[in-house]
């Protein structure tokens, strides 16, 4: 198995927001996916710790990031992007929250593109990053792309989770995901998830609204319409590595979700 992989993370996207928003794509994507609407993130359910647990496949107690301030781990672990690069493959990253810049070591990415969402507007920023990731697919022959759509979280903090403003951001993310999904060449799989949910105008608590995230695994290695059980955000890096035919670092703690396909 040696698929290429597109990983999309929608910051702060609750599973019930997918059903409540106006755009239908993510509501229907489960039919094409192995999926879970009950996957769990880690505590603290905060953006940078959750991303580090996704990319390093360990709990925050191991990688040491417990706030949105980056601190180099005392015992470094190869991230998902580092693992892709060490295998001689090409990884790229598109994002609009600057604190994610340290998820991969310098030199691990063929392209890293950051846009300040407040400079051009949050909805437009998510759309711009999507378009540039599509350009990368067509022009740069990558093996792995990480696309981060960050405005959903900002909308939640601004007006509140599950408000019309927040649901508009989720609908915009759903449209972005559909657009890049339709542009994927043959030989690509797609993983869609969130880092955490939210409630009122906050997150970071050990409550279902904050801890529950969606996961979609789309592509040839995955059975369509299969509901996965006991999924954790730490499981995504080992699963992506397996899909790409990579050897996962021994420090990673998550399980490969392809085992659920057998």
Characteristic key phrases:
alpha/beta; 8 strands
What does this structure look like?
The mean pLDDT is 96. Helices cover 36% and strands 17% of the residues. The protein is an alpha/beta fold. The two termini are 14 Å apart. It contains 11 helices and 8 strands. Helix 7 packs parallel to helix 9 and helix 8 runs antiparallel to helix 9. The radius of gyration is 16 Å and the shape is globular.
What's the layout of helices and strands?
Blueprint: E1 4-10, H1 15-20, H2 25-28, E2 33-40, H3 47-56, H4 60-63, H5 80-86, E3 91-95, E4 111-114, H6 117-120, H7 122-139, E5 144-149, H8 151-159, H9 164-183, E6 188-193, H10 208-211, E7 212-218, E8 226-227, H11 236-243
Parallel strand pairs: 1-5, 1-6, 2-8, 3-4, 3-5
Antiparallel strand pairs: 2-7, 6-7
Helix pairs in contact: 7-9, 8-9
Low-confidence stretches: none
N/C terminus separation: 14 Å
Shape: globular
The main pleated sheet reads as: 8 strands, mixed
The percentage of residues in β strands lies in: 15-25%
Order of helices and strands: EHHEHHHEEHHEHHEHEEH
Count helical runs: 11
Task: Work out the radius of gyration.
Answer: 16 Å
């Amino acid at each position: 198995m040696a698929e290429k992989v597109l990983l999309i993370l929608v910051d702060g996207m609750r599973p019930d927001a997918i059903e409540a928003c106006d755009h239908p794509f993510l509501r229907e994507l489960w039919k094409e996916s192995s999926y879970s609407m009950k996957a769990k993130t880690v505590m603290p359910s905060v953006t940078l710790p959750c991303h580090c647990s996704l990319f390093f496949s360990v709990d925050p107690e191991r990688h040491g990031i417990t706030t949105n301030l980056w601190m180099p781990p005392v015992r470094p672990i190869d991230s998902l992007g580092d693992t892709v690069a060490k295998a001689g493959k090409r990884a790229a990253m598109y994002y609009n929250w600057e604190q994610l810049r340290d998820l991969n070591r310098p030199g691990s990415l063929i392209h890293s593109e950051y846009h300040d969402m407040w400079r051009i507007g949050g909805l437009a920023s998510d759309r711009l990053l999507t378009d540039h990731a599509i350009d990368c697919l067509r022009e740069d022959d990558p093996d792995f792309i990480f696309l981060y759509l960050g405005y959903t979280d900002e909308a939640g903090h601004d007006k509140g989770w599950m408000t019309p403003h927040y649901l508009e951001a989720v609908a915009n993310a759903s449209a972005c995901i559909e657009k890049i999904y339709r542009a994927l060449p043959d030989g690509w799989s797609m993983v869609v998830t969130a880092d955490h949910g939210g409630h009122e105008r906050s997150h970071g608590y050990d409550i279902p609204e904050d801890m529950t995230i969606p996961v979609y695994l789309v592509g040839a290695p995955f059975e369509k319409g299969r509901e996965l059980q006991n999924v954790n955000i730490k499981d995504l890096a080992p699963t992506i590595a397996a899909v790409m035919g990579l050897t996962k670092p021994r420090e990673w703690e998550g399980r490969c979700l392809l085992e659920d396909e057998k």
